[in-house]
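Researcher: I'd like a structural prediction for the single chain below. Treat it as a standalone chain; there are no partners to consider.
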Amino acid sequence: MSELPAVAPRGRLADSDLLAAFLRSRVAMLAALATLLIFAAAAFAPLIAPHDPYDLASLSLLDSLTPPAWRAGGTTTYLLGTDDQGRDLLSALLYGTRISLAVGFASVTFAAVLGISLGLVAGYVGGVVDAVIMRIADVQLTFPAILIALLIDGTVRGLLPGLTREESAFGVLVLSIGLSFWVQYARTVRGSTLVEASKEYVLAARLIGLSPVTIMARHILPNVLGPVLVIAAINLALAIITEATLSFLGVGMPPTQPSLGMLIRVGQDYLFSGEWWIIVFPGAMLAILVLSVNLLGDFLRDALNPKLR
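Model: Treating it as a single chain, here is the predicted structure.
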């Protein structure tokens, strides 16, 4: 009997239902293109930004509140104008998007690792351990994510008064947002683990003497990651919004390291005085970024849902 020809990974990808569904969805393709462009612009901000917004020595108050280049009084030196400190708004947007994405990715990674670990332990071990973890998750669900982030932010800054805001802002934001989002991962992974733990391959792994940690890491974890990827994609947009909200409220990134939320906060003070560009451009960037990531998350949720195929 002749052997079946091996299918290369590229061929499997080309024939996959996910890629076919992606190519049929114009909304998903546009969202992916917008997300890719924004990610690339943020990643290469030091190379493509015309100015360095972090170099305070290069800022001049004489250049503050300069309008965009196409308006009267504008200049091509500052294509999108400047803010109240004379900072080039285009450069600030690129670097601010970079900070917002970094906080989003780091907090989602932290929340996913914590939630997946607790969900696996709760679903596999069961008993008192499961009850304690799930009751903690139920209690946390009664509080809004913003409130939890504010409480954690205030607690950390109170326990570590010696740290300056510039030194601790990024870590505090990641910890605050990550501890706000772990519950979704834990509940989802726990439910999937309860189903997988009763299957024959897990029972066989127990019979041959594999440790619980090995069974959870090598056998159960790969089979419960599908829903986690969808949650992570959607939570990335939520994490970016949460970071922008905290920065807008004054407990996020410092003014010397402006994120999108901090730029919006600065622009709010000048919205009704005619300097609309300070808030409109950061707000538009945040809206496009969150919308694109959300649309990709919705596409993954529908494409990976077998009930909708």
